[in-house]
C-alpha cells in the first residue's frame, strides 16, 4: 500500500523550516477560482484540495516571505491499488449519504485516484516508525481518523464489537470540506489492512456556515468561536439551538448577530419559553401543582391530530438526518401549544361557575402539561440542558421520544415549579458580542496538518 517518492516542498528561509501546507497562502491555481487567499491544503472559496507547491505567488503565512522549493523523500498511500475495492463499497452504501457527500466522492472516483502523500517534514506529530523516515511525522489526516477506533478502545474493552462486529450502523457528520478524508482516505486505510473493519454507512455533510457577509476565519479574526461563545452571557443550549436552526443542510447559510438575537427573542423566548412557562404556571397557580384530568372535546381532538402530524414529521426528519427541519417541527409544535392556550383561555374559564367551561379549562391545562412533557423529550437531541430543566420543573425523568401524543402524565401528577427558561438578548449585548474577534495570532506553530 506504500510508495516512496521524492517531493518538492516549500521551505521558509526566514523560519528555517519546511512549512505545513496550511501555513502557505497564495492564489488558488484553478483558473475558474483564482481566490487570492487560498491555503496550501485547501481553497476556502472553491473547496478544492490543493498541494501547497501549486499555489500561485505563494507566501509564508507567518513572515510573508516567498518560500523556496526543496526536495524531500516521503511515503505515499498507493490509492490506485485499492480503488476497485473502494468502488465496490461505494455502490453498496452511498444511497443514504447527503447529496454533497455523494458528489464529492464521485468526483474523486471519476478523475481516478492518485497516490497521496502521508508524511510531513515537521517536528510535531506522530513519528513515522520506518528507517530513514524517523525525522518525519504522519500527515494529520492519516493518523487522526485512526483515533476514532483508538478512542473507542479507551472507552470500552469491547471496542471490536463496534468497529469489527455485526449489527452496527456507522454515521459521520461533517462539513463538506472534510468529506474526501472520510469517504476516500480513511476507508482506503481500513480496506488496505485486509481486516473486517466496519466502514462508514452514512456520511451527512453540510454546506458552509458563513459569518456576517463573509467567511469564518480564525486566523484572520473573522467570526465567533467556542472560546468567545463561552465568555458571553448566552447559555450553550442557545448556541446549539441557533447553529442547528441555521444548519446548512442543502445550501450555505450565514451567522448574523441580529438574526441570532431575533431567533432567541422570538422562537425561544416568545414561542417555546412562553408556552412552557404558561403551561406549567397554570398547573401551579390554579390546580395546586397537580395536573388535572378532564374530557376533551372535538375541537381539542382536532388539535391533538395536528400535534401528531408534526410529531410524525419530526420523527421522519430525525431518521433522515434532517436535524434542522426536525428542530423546526419542535417549534411548530410549541406554537400549537400557544394556540391551544389562546383559544381556550384557561385563566378565564377556570373561574367560571359553568361546569362545562371549567372542564374546558382543565382539559386545556391537562393537554398543555402533556405537551410540555413531549417538548422536553423532543428537545433533548438539540438542547439537552433545556430538556433536563423542563423535565425538572415538570417533575419527571427524561423520557424516550414517543410515536404519538397522549396522556403521558397521570392525574394529579405534581409539577415541581414553573420558571422562565430563556431571557431576552438586548441590542447592547449584540453590539458588544459583534466586536468579539477570533484568535488572530500569527505565531508559527508546528502542525502535521495540511
TrEMBL record:
Domain named Methionyl/Leucyl tRNA synthetase: residues: 4-278
Keyword hit for Nucleotide-binding: yes
Source organism of this protein record: Oikopleura dioica
A Pfam match: tRNA-synt_1g
UniProt key word Ribosomal protein: no
Reaction(s) this enzyme catalyzes, per UniProt: tRNA(Met) + L-methionine + ATP = L-methionyl-tRNA(Met) + AMP + diphosphate
Cross-referenced InterPro entries: Anticodon_Met, Met-tRNA_ligase_1, Met-tRNA_synth, Methionyl/Leucyl_tRNA_Synth, MetRS_core, MetRS_Zn, Rossmann-like_a/b/a_fold, tRNAsynth_Ia_anticodon-bd
Family per record: Belongs to the class-I aminoacyl-tRNA synthetase family.
This enzyme's EC code(s): 6.1.1.10
Methionyl-tRNA synthetase anticodon-binding domain: residues covered: 297-435
Protein name: methionine--tRNA ligase
TM segment ranges: none
Keywords in alphabetical order: Aminoacyl-tRNA synthetase, ATP-binding, Ligase, Nucleotide-binding, Protein biosynthesis
Amino acid at each position: 500500500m506504500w510508495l516512496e517518492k521524492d517531493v518538492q516542498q516549500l521551505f521558509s528561509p526566514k523560519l528555517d523550516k519546511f512549512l505545513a501546507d496550511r501555513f502557505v497562502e497564495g492564489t488558488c491555481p484553478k483558473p475558474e477560482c483564482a481566490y487570492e487567499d487560498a491555503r496550501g491544503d485547501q481553497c476556502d472559496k472553491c473547496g478544492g484540495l490543493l498541494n501547497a507547491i501549486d499555489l500561485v505567488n505563494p507566501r509564508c503565512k507567518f513572515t510573508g516571505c516567498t518560500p523556496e522549493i526543496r526536495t524531500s523523500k516521503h511515503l505515499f498511500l498507493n490509492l490506485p491499488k485499492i480503488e476497485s475495492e473502494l468502488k465496490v463499497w461505494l455502490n453498496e452504501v452511498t444511497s443514504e449519504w447527503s447529496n454533497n457527500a455523494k458528489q464529492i466522492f464521485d468526483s474523486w472516483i471519476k478523475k481516478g485516484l492518485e497516490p497521496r502523500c502521508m508524511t510531513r517534514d515537521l517536528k510535531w506529530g506522530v513519528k513515522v516508525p520506518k528507517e530513514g523516515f524517523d525525522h518525519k511525522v504522519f500527515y494529520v489526516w492519516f493518523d487522526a481518523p485512526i483515533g476514532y477506533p483508538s478512542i473507542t478502545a479507551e472507552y470500552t474493552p469491547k471496542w471490536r464489537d463496534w468497529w469489527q462486529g455485526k449489527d452496527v450502523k456507522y454515521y459521520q457528520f461533517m462539513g463538506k470540506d472534510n468529506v474526501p478524508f472520510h469517504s476516500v482516505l480513511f476507508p482506503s486505510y481500513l480496506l488496505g489492512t485486509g481486516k473486517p473493519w466496519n466502514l462508514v454507512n452514512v456520511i451527512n455533510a453540510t454546506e458552509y456556515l458563513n459569518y456576517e457577509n463573509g467567511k469564518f476565519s480564525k486566523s484572520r479574526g473573522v467570526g465567533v468561536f467556542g472560546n468567545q461563545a463561552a465568555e458571553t452571557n448566552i447559555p450553550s443550549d442557545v448556541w446549539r439551538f441557533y447553529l442547528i436552526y441555521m444548519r446548512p443542510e442543502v445550501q450555505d447559510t450565514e451567522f448574523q448577530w441580529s438574526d441570532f438575537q431575533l431567533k432567541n427573542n422570538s422562537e425561544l423566548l416568545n414561542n417555546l419559553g412562553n408556552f412552557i412557562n404558561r403551561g406549567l404556571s397554570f398547573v401551579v397557580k390554579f390546580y395546586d401543582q397537580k395536573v388535572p384530568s378532564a374530557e376533551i372535546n372535538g375541537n381539542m381532538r382536532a388539535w391533538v391530530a395536528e400535534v401528531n402530524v408534526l410529531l410524525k414529521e419530526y420523527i421522519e426528519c430525525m431518521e433522515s438526518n434532517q436535524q434542522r427541519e426536525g428542530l423546526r417541527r419542535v417549534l411548530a409544535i410549541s406554537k400549537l401549544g400557544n394556540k391551544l392556550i389562546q383559544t381556550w383561555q384557561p385563566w378565564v374559564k377556570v373561574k367560571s361557575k359553568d361546569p362545562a367551561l371549567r372542564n374546558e379549562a382543565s382539559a386545556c391545562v391537562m393537554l398543555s402539561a402533556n405537551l410540555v412533557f413531549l417538548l422536553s423529550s423532543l428537545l433533548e437531541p438539540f438542547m439537552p440542558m433545556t430538556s433536563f430543566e423542563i423535565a425538572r420543573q415538570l417533575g419527571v425523568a427524561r423520557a424516550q421520544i414517543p410515536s404519538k401524543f397522549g396522556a403521558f402524565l397521570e392525574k394529579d401528577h405534581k409539577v415541581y415549579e414553573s420558571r422562565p427558561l430563556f431571557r431576552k438578548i438586548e441590542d447592547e449585548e449584540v453590539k458588544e458580542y459583534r466586536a468579539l474577534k477570533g484568535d488572530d495570532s500569527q505565531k508559527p506553530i508546528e502542525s502535521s496538518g495540511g
